[in-house]
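Long-time lurker. I teach an intro course on protein structure, and each term I like to show students one example going from raw sequence to a predicted 3D structure in token notation. This year I'd like something fresh instead of my usual example. Would anyone be willing to generate the tokens for the chain below so I can use it in lecture? Attribution to the forum is fine with me.
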Amino acid sequence: MSFVQVSFAIFLPIVFGVWLVVRRHYAMAGTWLLTASLFFYGYRQWWVLSVILSYCLVDWLTGLWLQRTQHRRLALALGVGFNLLVLCFWKYTPLVLQSAATLFGWTSVQLEQVASGNWIVPMGISFYAFTGIAYMVDVYRRVVEPEINPVRFALFTSFFPHLVAGPILRPAEFLTHLKPGQMPTKPLDPAEGAFLIARGFFKKLVLADSIAVAIDPFFANVSEPSTAGVWATPYIYLYALQIYFDFSGYTDIARGLGLWFGFRWPENFNWPYLATSVQDFWRRWHMTLSRFLRDYLYIPLGGNRGGPLRVAAALMATMLLGGLWHGASWSFMLWGGLHGAFLIINRWWGTTALHGSLAALTGAPASAWHWLRIVLTFNAVCLAWCFFRLTHLQDSLACIAKWIAFDWDKAFAGGSADPALWTLLAAYGVATFAARTMTNSEPVQAAVARLDARPLTSGTVWGASLGLLALALLLAPGTQVQPFIYFQF
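-- Reply from a regular --
Happy to contribute to a lecture. Here you go:
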């Protein structure tokens, strides 16, 4: 099930309504939320429940084993190994078979069918695999105590708002709040939750899906004669906006639902396209994945310890594996490798005398240098997005070529020339700027809490949220709703 399906509009009121009735009965509330989450995940594909329940069982047992055994490294290795092997089987079998068929010249019909898309990857498997790995490593490091209750652990892994596309939660952010005496019995900041849900649906249904309608034909035919001479730059920029609105929209909805059920989860995005370096970008983009890669991969690989070559190797290995985590295509590794190269260059640049001189600028020159860094970073990120969006190397290279060489008569052709789309994006930008100005750039949590504390402005918050949700439904493109981009990961 997806947040944007009609079935979810029926599912959510029932789940929330029953929870409001049973929320003060600890066992009933936990069992109900787990049952609803498993229904949400297994909707129309009940066989996937065997995958996630296997993860829950093995990770839970591994946590208990880590507490009782003297062979802690062996227990951790087996637990993490299970998570990675199952993930690799479901996610990378088509890539392995396709690569083997290409390498050895195999022409088996069965291999071609698997490689061509008949293989089904369980939704969200990458996210709950990483959640389980984080749990086992934290138990191994004695950061948290192992969970003794299998129902609580299964709820931690499978709770429907964050299940399919995160945020990637650590035990201290969710699991510890499921214990007796800690389990929420009422919504937490429902006004903020309503605003986040409404904003998330608007980002997804109106902004991301409208962009998809405009750019999908170009990317589907980027190597074909029909797009000869078309300028790729506006399409690449629009894709950068699409994936941001799509993924941050999902995160807004997930965090808003979490608040309605009494849980506050970490932010996942912080204005990533205003980053002044690629390193800064990864502090702002998919932040829960960034910290996972940092704490459970980059630091164990050596992190900032050692000489420049060792640090560069750790960075590159982390980003290559992070790229491959996103999907069964070598293009994702290229995407990760580009970011790894950018990060290495970023570290080298930070050691130069010129960087120090530019960092010491003040006034107008400092402002100009600040915005130039934002422009350079954004374009570097967009260059990498070409390999993320287009999973065939030939298409990615054709897109980059059309970024540089194009026909001025076709510069803005097709969807990129739609004035309604640009007007919509400009209006959203103006509205966002106005809202930040009116709230003095307060975080959403602080701004909504301040407004919700007064009867008049509280009604305004709820009215604005309902109005934004209504606009999302009214302005959504008339075509079929697009699935969330990160559902494929």
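Some talking points for your students: The chain has two domains: 6-186, 191-475. The mean pLDDT is 90.
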